[in-house]
Amino acid sequence: MIKFHILTLFPDLFSGFLKESILARAQKQGLIEIYVYNLRDWGIGKHNQVDDSPYGGGTGMVIMMEPIDVAIKEITKDWMPKKNRKILLTPQGKIYNQKKAEDLSKYENVLLICGRYEGFDERIRALVDEELSIGNYILNGGEVAAMAVVESVFRLLPGVLTKEEATRIETFHDGLLEYPQYTRPEDYYGKKVPPVLLSGNHAKIEKWRHEQAVKKTIEKRPDLLDGRD
Ligand code: 6GU
């Protein structure tokens, strides 16, 4: 069982996401727990201040050390360091990928701190284990990135996908793109379903699907095959 802890200034962004069907089911089954914390709750003074103007001048506001530092300390107070991960989501991080998702799925607790793009005090970086980004583009904050991380990790947990789904992904996906799929009708205004899929010959269908997955990968994402025969 994995526990995600999300620290954000915009907790409401997560309410719809957390109710999504597979994620809701996984939470009910006790495969995953997700806690969303409002950074504002650790704000300073009667206005619960979390940011301030930058030293040296300039526009915009900078997230302050204290609310983040105290929030991290409180959220992680009972954690044993080895099985837990504290992550800052920022465009300056290493690019997130499937391998990273697999690594994270082995932790007991994962804290995702959603940075704001305008910035946070540089010293905050020293409070976390690593920084992650979900790609080379700029978002206003780490919230969408946090959802990407949660969704990609939780579907790897044993019991989340059905046995059938998991087997299909392992045997075919194995680093390849998905083979082409079709459903009714057989003929859509002249665009036809490949005849092999209607043949009823399962061995032939399996072979065709694997070939198609390889072909598609070579054509669309040859980078996925780097270092393979
Ligand atoms: Cl994690 N945060 C922001 N603000 N922008 C991003 C990102 C994260 N990953 C890609 N772009």
Would you kindly provide a written description of the structure presented here, covering whatever features stand out?
This protein is of the alpha/beta class. It folds into two domains: 2-154, 3-Layer(aba) Sandwich (Alpha/beta knot); 169-225, tRNA(m1g37)methyltransferase, domain 2 (Trp Operon Repressor, Chain A, Orthogonal Bundle). 32% of the residues lie in helices and 19% in strands. The protein has seven helices and nine strands; from the N terminus they run E-H-H-E-E-E-H-E-H-E-E-H-H-E-E-H. The protein has a five-stranded parallel beta sheet, sandwiched between helices. A two-stranded antiparallel ribbon has the order 3-4. Strands 8-9 form a two-stranded antiparallel ribbon. Helix 4 links the parallel strand 5 (84-95) and strand 6 (109-114). One of its GO terms (cellular component) is cytosol. It is found in: Cytoplasm.
